Amino acid sequence: MTSDDDGLAQRELVRRGYDELAETYAAEREGNENDALLDRLRSDAPPGRVLDAGCGDGTSALSPLAGERPVAGLDFSREQATRANEVAPGRVVQGDMTALPFADGTFAAVGAFYSIIHVPAGETPTVYEEFARVLSPGGVALVTTGTEGWAGRNDDWLAGGAPMEWDILGLDRSTGLLEAAGFTVYETVGVVDGLGQDGKTSRLVAADSDEAEKLFIFARLES
Ligand SMILES: C[S@@+](CC[C@H](N)C(=O)[O-])C[C@H]1O[C@@H](n2cnc3c(N)ncnc32)[C@H](O)[C@@H]1O
Hints:
Keywords: Methyltransferase, Transferase
GO biological process, one term: methylation
Strand order of the largest sheet: 3-2-1-4-5-10-8-9
Largest sheet: 8 strands, mixed
Domain Methyltransferase: 50-139
Number of domains: 1
Helix content: 25-40%
Distance between the termini: 41 Å
InterPro entries: Methyltransf_25, SAM-dependent_MTases_sf
Protein name: Methyltransferase domain-containing protein
CATH architecture: 3-Layer(aba) Sandwich
Radius of gyration: 16 Å
Bound molecules: S-adenosylmethionine
């Protein structure tokens, strides 16, 4: 198999996994830490439309933003996109972050909460180029990565009976790719990820905290 084939296989596995695990993921994702991140996104982004890229069922970011700003949600899982369309009717498309079905310069912000961590490394530069293309100058991207790089698979993710794969680039590689796409990274926030861990709730911590497991990167598209 070529690395292109590997990337396609990974994408298909992730897409199918989020179809099959929609109920399980929704139950585990309850009580997330997005509020403070969304507040920051609201205050940092210029006025205008916000894209939630890899929006899942829409409860984490699309729904809270939809009452305040024009929004669009995008997810390549049919099940997730269908669910998200219930919280933001008519504003969700089933599509892939590597080829966004939106015109150039039409968003003030793109949030990608825990979604780019599933994109094969070879396709991540394209995703950041796509974010830069659809943002207007000065627009803000908020993306998740790991404190370290890690790629791997769980054959029974969240004990839901379906496999899942990740390709997490870590801060340094993510920063390099964002800069290559025209962004300046201006803030990182750490998160202790409680998903799928009994009794542990996700919470934000300093990016350099020993507790941080993943990072949210805020980056601004150069004007
Ligand atoms: C961990 S979930 C996060 C969902 C939501 N953002 C949240 O914070 O709960 C990752 C989502 O990204 C979507 N996703 C992964 N790769 C994608 C891609 N290449 N294009 C579009 N959606 C993708 C998955 O289908 C899934 O719904």
